[in-house]
Amino acid sequence: MGLIKEFKEFAMKGNVIDMAVGIVIGLAFGRIVTSVVNDIIMPPIGLLIGGVDFNELKIILKHGSVDELGNTIEAVSINYGAFIQTAIDFTIIAFAIFMIIKGMNSLKRKEEAKPEPPPIPPKEEVLLTEIRDLLKKK
Q1: Measured CA distances, 30 to 26, 36, 40, 72, 89 (Å)
Q2: Which CATH superfamily groups domain 2-118?
Q3: What would the pLDDT profile of 54-103 be if each residue is shown by its tens digit?
Q4: Which neighbouring-strand residues pair with 77?
Q5: Domains of the chain: which residue ranges?
Q6: Measured between alpha carbons, how far is residue 39 from residues 32, 35, 71, 77, 80 in Å?
Q7: d(CA 77, CA 61)
Q8: CA-CA distance, 79 to 52, in Å (whole number)?
Q9: CA-to-CA distance for 61 and 89, rounded, in angstroms?
Q10: pTM higher than 0.85
Q11: Please, where are the H alpha helices in the chain?
């Protein structure tokens, strides 16, 4: 039972749950960015370069064929268009994360820059200061 208890403690730690939430949000964010790239950014770029769909750009090394038994042999190709698409997705995600972290660091610096009020001295010190001030007046 020790192993099960230890696993339960591990799984219920705040860091593990925070990480799981981050992964789920990251996946959803990745889908949004992929949609922005595929549906908004790439069509105009493809139109500018002559209606090319980046996912269709490839270098065919060996054409597909059908062997004598009727089995289809897939074509062998280097899909550099898919790589371009993925690189653009990565760049946008990296930039968005950079901007989020930059904003968080800016807020953190503002919090650190706030001056803290001086600490309240103990009652004895306040009384001694008052006595000193009264003695100076005499």
Answers
A1: 6, 10, 15, 34, 8
A2: Large-conductance mechanosensitive channel, MscL; domain 1 (1.10.1200.120)
A3: 778 889 998 888 888 888 888 899 999 888 888 887 888 788 778 888 88
A4: 60
A5: 2-118
A6: 10, 5, 36, 25, 19
A7: 5
A8: 14
A9: 26
A10: no
A11: 2-11, 14-36, 42-48, 80-113, 123-137
Specify the pairing of strand 76-78 against strand 65-66: unpaired
- The amino acid that residue 51 corresponds to is G
User: The tokens 């807020």 sit on which residue?
Assistant: 107
Residue bearing tokens 């789920």: 24
How far is 122 from 115, CA to CA, in rounded Å?
21
Q: Report how far residue 85's alpha carbon sits from residue 82's, in angstroms, rounded to the nearest whole number.
A: 5
Amino acid identity, residue 64? G
CB atoms within 10 A of CB 109: 9
